[in-house]
C-alpha cells in the first residue's frame, strides 16, 4: 500500500513577496510582531521567496518601506506580492492605506470588502480597517489589519483568489476572445 503526500500548491515558485508590519511598539522592541510570522509562513508555504517581515513604526516609515519595495528596484526585481499588516485603523498615525493608495496604479476594493465580510463573522470591529488593495506594475499590494484574527481572515479570503490575482496581474490568463 502506498500513500501519497498531498501536493502543496507552489503558486509563488520563482517569485518573491514582501511583508511590511506597521507597528510602533514592535519596531521599538516593546512588543512582539504577532502577524508578520503568520503572513511570511503563508507566502513561503505558497512557494514565494519571502524574507522575514520588515517591521517599521506607524506613519511615514510605512511609506518609506513601501516606496523602497515598489519604486527603488527595477520592475522585474520587485516583489510580486507586498502584504502589509497594521496601520489601517483610526489612530492619527495609522496611515498605511494612504501611503499604499498613492503608490497604486489600480485599486481593487472588492478584495477589502470581502475581507470585511469575513471579519464580520467574528467581530464587528472588522469594518474599522481602512485597508486598500491594488496593483503597481506587476506587483499586487494589499493591506491587512494589524490583528492576528484579521490577518487569518484576510488569508482565508485572499488565498482562494491568489492564483487568479497573480495571473491577472501578470497578464497570463486566457481571457478568450473579447467581444
TrEMBL record:
Protein's pathway: Cofactor biosynthesis; molybdopterin biosynthesis
Residue stretches making up the MoaB/Mog domain: 18-165
Keywords recorded for this protein, A-Z: Molybdenum cofactor biosynthesis
Pfam families recorded: MoCF_biosynth
Family matches, as SUPFAM superfamilies: Molybdenum cofactor biosynthesis proteins (SSF53218)
Keyword Ribosomal protein: no
Entry annotated with the keyword Membrane: no
PANTHER family: MOLYBDENUM COFACTOR BIOSYNTHESIS (PTHR43764), MOLYBDOPTERIN MOLYBDOTRANSFERASE (PTHR43764:SF1)
Protein name as catalogued: MoaB/Mog domain-containing protein
Organism in which the protein naturally occurs: Brevibacterium ammoniilyticum
